[in-house]
Amino acid sequence: MSAQPEEAPAPPAPAAAQPLAQLRADRRADTWVSAFERDWAKALEDSRHSYSLTPVHDVVRTRQVRLASAPAVDAYLDSGRDETGFVDLADILGAR
Fold it and tell me: Phi and psi dihedrals of 10, rounded to 5?
């Protein structure tokens, strides 16, 4: 049983502290931090129900990959390449 009320959001755990700090330092912080916090809360809830830390690790791993690839994406977009004629990969693959 938890000492906190159920409606109170859980503070990010130490495992999330480093990616969260990196997200806050990025220029996309306004969107990335809120998305991370939303995904982190859902992963914690999923972990509570499944007794598995896999959802939490997946969230951290996903954000680390996004942070690592952000400079390459920025360089590509800054190169002036036009992407208007392409189809989003998510549209092709569908929801995962």
Answer: -75, 140
